[in-house]
Amino acid sequence: MTLRVIFAGTPEFAVPALNHLIGRGLVPCLVMTQPDRPAGRGRALQASPVKQLATAHGIECWQPTSLKGASLDRYAPDLLITAAYGLLLPAAVLQGPKWGCWNLHASLLPRWRGASPIQQAILAGDQETGISLMQMDAGLDTGPVILQRSLEILPTDTAGDLHDKLADLAAMVLSQGLDHLLADTLPTPKPQPTVGVTHAPLIKKSDARLDWSQPASVLAREVLAYNPWPIAHTNAFEALGEPMVRIWSAQAVEEAAGQYLPGTLISATGDGIVVACGEGSLKITSLQAPGRKRLTASEWLNAHRHWG
User: Fold this and answer.
1) CATH of the domain at 132
2) Which partner for 77 in 57, 97, 186, 202 could form a disulfide, CB atoms 3.0-4.6 Å apart?
3) How far is it, in rounded angstroms, from Cα 12 to Cα 101?
4) What gap in Å lies between CA 9 and CA 52, rounded to an integer?
5) Is residue 184 domain-shared with residue 114, that is, in the same domain?
């Protein structure tokens, strides 16, 4: 069997899947990706990682701002594959390819449908996540599942760490799905259960502002989940001369904090800066002032001796 494939994706997460298609000789006849966006200090327009890879291989790219009224009939695709594309596909596009449209989603559906499944899994304290290869329908991540593969979430995994692992796993799951399709052994897609549905809304910068009245275990997960973006931050140290501090790494500790108000600096050593929480304490081990470089706790205290 030969396949004419269209691939739709935008960020780094989608790059390993597109690389796999190219590597196995299923070079897409079209790549769909989001329009170029301003980036960097100069705010110059920058192509998405998927567009950069596609362009390097001479693949035609299409960057619509909307798919309303769109048709892919002239490409006669057998299969459309999406991975973190960013636009919903209308019915006319979903119904076009012979084998329909597949989506690689970074969760074990129906858990964490939506835009931020990686962050939400960490925030919730989930012990595992994975990749779902699903047959797309008109809903948001609601289609029947073809294949799923799970992945352990380590206690130290940031969203960036988990992103990279899941991106590689997505390429592996896509490979398995294509192998089945080409061998005519594709499993019958299974409808998602109605029990266990959770939603993963788009992350905003304001979500990453730490609320010190929360338990330290919750704040430690927030630090992991919001790394590398938008980075957990706090204004708890304004009285110490730092109106806003970004926190890159931290851990919950058992240090007694009952006699301190949440957000109070308890101790500061090279091992970490300990802050009282609603329950327990948070030991900050890496932090950053706006416009400055990221520092370890030891480096920070060398530059802020009045904290000790």
Assistant:
1) 3.40.50.170
2) 97
3) 20
4) 12
5) yes
